[in-house]
Amino acid sequence: YASLSRYFSPNIAQRLANDTGSVDLGGQRREIASLFSDIAGFTALVETLEPTVLGPLLNDYLTGMTDIVFAQDGTVAKIVGDALHVLFGAPAEQPDHAARAVACALSLDEFAESFREQCNKKGIPLGITRIGVHAGTAIVGNFGGGRFFDYTAYGDTINVTARLETANKELGTRICASASLAKEVKDFRGRPIG
Hints:
194 residues, single chain
């Protein structure tokens, strides 16, 4: 388990360690919440930073972000550069997956803003972290080939989440959550936009 957890989200590592059948390729349709995060202007910033600065910065950022995800029992499906794709309600069912996703988004935003402020004080013009959150049906499971696989999710729910993250740029917001997610969360507080 300890070795697996260096390569997989902890809840996936636990599943792999406990159930050898869980590495079978294929998926199942289920209700989940999905979250995407991305740092604005990060690719352009990378071109100006030395590797000795970029490495620690990115590692510290991703460590802080993933620690928050794991504290909410989220699954990191993918890390691509500075971007995270997180699932709630998979691989294990979580009846409160939408509430966990909202709590996670708020905590991620708080961390990312604090991290950005620290970077800016050091003269590193780190952009804001934009977050999209949505809930719906997706196909989740292990997909790939016989030698390599990803635990991931597919479907319109995932596409909408990615679009919500991107919509923050046009809307001037940092977190954009869908109405379908909001209605699943008791006492959800937010403002209609877009």
